[in-house]
Amino acid sequence: MKSIIGSLSIILFFSASLFSQDFVIEDDGLNDSLRKTIAIIPFQNNYYRSEIDRSLAASENLDYQNLRDIQRKELDKQLYLILNDEYNVLSFLKDKNEDDQELLDYIFYSTASSYTNLDSDEKVDRSILGLGQINEAPISEDQRYMKTVIHHPPLMATLAEQLPADLYLFIGELDILLPKNYDEKDQNRYIYMHFTLYNNSGVIIDSGLISQVISQKKCRKIKDISMDGFAPIAYQLKNRLDSL
């Protein structure tokens, strides 16, 4: 009798376990279907500004173009990894192919970038692009950001067809800068990510600047910049999305 009871207990235990597993799987699947989709649009090549690239390129044995491309991918990777906890994330750089590049080129053609005052949300009246490089803006770094504006209306219809998402995250610019204070130059570096967030109706629902201070010692390797600079920025963005 004891053996029969023991057998029944084992059967009931495994049945309950299997039911629990099935329930969890179904629940996860339901959550996945309810999660919003967000597409990450990386910054254009011209909109990368770094004051540490000379030393970083020497340390990593890379030229400027390769360094910029890797930084672009690392920022995209951290955004993907951290946002993917709550969103279905679409990335142009994760599994890059020819079709993706063609669509990305069309997105860049259909958008314009404009330095915007964070407080007033007004355009900064000065051309800050010259000879393919970003020049200094007339106001300080933490008072303005690079806003992405859609100037070609058919873009949203194209995105709805080829890259359907609930949200479109445009990275307007990436800066890695030295401190303005001379006494701090041997200590910290400042990373700024400029972004504009559109919904699928083409309406801006959030935009601005996210910054992160990183130790000078963590700026000698790209992997350290990614983990100690880009990852915290991605978490800050995630918190902003959660509050919308």
Q: Structural class from helices and strands?
A: alpha/beta
Number of domains: 1
Please give the alpha-carbon distance between the first and last residues. 61 Å
Estimated radius of gyration: 23 Å
The chain-level mean pLDDT equals 85
- Major beta sheet, specifics? 6 strands, mixed
Overall shape: globular
Number of strands: 10
Please work out how many helical segments DSSP would assign.
Answer: 6
Helix content: 40-55%
Beta-strand share of residues:
25-35%
- Series of secondary-structure elements, N-terminal to C-terminal: HEEHHEHEEEEHEEEH
Describe this structure in words.
The chain has helices at 2-34, 53-60, 64-83, 98-110, 155-162, 222-243; strands at 37-41, 48-50, 88-91, 111-117, 129-130, 133-134, 144-150, 167-177, 188-199, 204-215. It is α/β, with parallel strands linked by helices and 244 residues long. It has one domain (38-243). Strands 1, 2, 3, 8, 9 and 10 form a six-stranded mixed sheet that branches. Strands 4-7 form a two-stranded antiparallel sheet. α3 (64-83) crosses α6. The longest helix has 33 residues, at 2-34. The chain is globular and about 50 Å long. The N and C termini lie far apart (61 Å). The model is unreliable at 1-30 (pLDDT under 50).
